[in-house]
Amino acid sequence: MRLKGKVAVITGGAGGIGLATVRKFVAEGAQVVVADIDLARAEAVVAELDAAGHAGATAAAQVDVSVLAEVEAMVARAVQVFGRLDVIFNNAGIAGGKPLLEHDPDVDYAPMIRVDQDGVYHGILAAGRQFRNQGTPGVIISTSSIYGEQAAELAFSYSAAKAAVISFTRSAAYELAEFGIRVVAITPGRVGTPMIRQFSEELKSTFAAEQLRNKLTEPEEIANVVAFLASDEANVINGTVVHVDDGYSVFKQRLDLPVF
Ligand code: NAD
Description:
Elements: E1 7-11, H1 16-27, E2 31-36, H2 39-51, E3 58-62, H3 68-82, E4 87-90, H4 105-108, H5 110-134, E5 138-143, H6 156-176, E6 181-188, H7 194-197, H8 201-209, H9 219-230, E7 241-244
Parallel strand pairs: 1-2, 1-4, 2-3, 4-5, 5-6, 6-7
The protein binds nicotinamide-adenine-dinucleotide.
Nicotinamide-adenine-dinucleotide is lined by residues 11-12, 14-18, 36-38, 63-66, 91-95, 115, 143, 145, 188, 190-191, 193-196.
């Protein structure tokens, strides 16, 4: 129960990594606002946890993280329902892409930047202000990606947004340390969520082979790390990127080289 007494907001909490993290946080004793653009699915998560013996531990909130006023309202809902805020997990994101020279900026650049980049900025602002006003420490964890640190096919806008998340993390940790606020980014590799499961079996096998265990990461495995980072046990991790990529970033590909 290492998150007992803590109140958290998790964006993108109705699916994939966010949902696994909601379940993990509740199991560790936290109270959680399940925030998602899809309110019906967020409410279904609350109903699931209520029925599973965690009645009242979660509340749903509809949010489009690309709109600051909605992110502020989401934080206000945590305070209204649970009385305070201790942790925000800025995790909501969208993927997709086209070859760079075929971009229509209004379709292939701006929406990605608004959700994956501005959404995290908004979360840092709204939660940071809440922590400062409460006069308590707080933890801000944001989901970047391996693509935030490298070039990849069809990923021009996504990589830019995810790189910004890493930069935000460093700068915010530096600026907010005086308020006792800790800021961390995670970089998942290939995680078996709807974002990845939409692809063919062949492509999923290729994705799996990019990781050292030769399989897709389970969302629950990411959630375990996020719960640790949110806990006081991780007090010394601040301003840095925690790679949760099963080694993706440390090797290029399996070459099947002959012995020589
Ligand atoms: P997912 O599609 O399963 O879940 C994303 C959730 O975010 C959904 O519930 C969706 O409704 C919500 N969402 C989308 N736009 C939103 C908005 N504007 N406001 C609020 N909520 C919104 O995806 P996932 O794989 O769980 O991804 C979670 C995060 O992890 C994303 O930031 C993604 O970029 C990142 N990531 C995923 C992988 C992977 O392999 N799956 C790898 C690296 C990084």
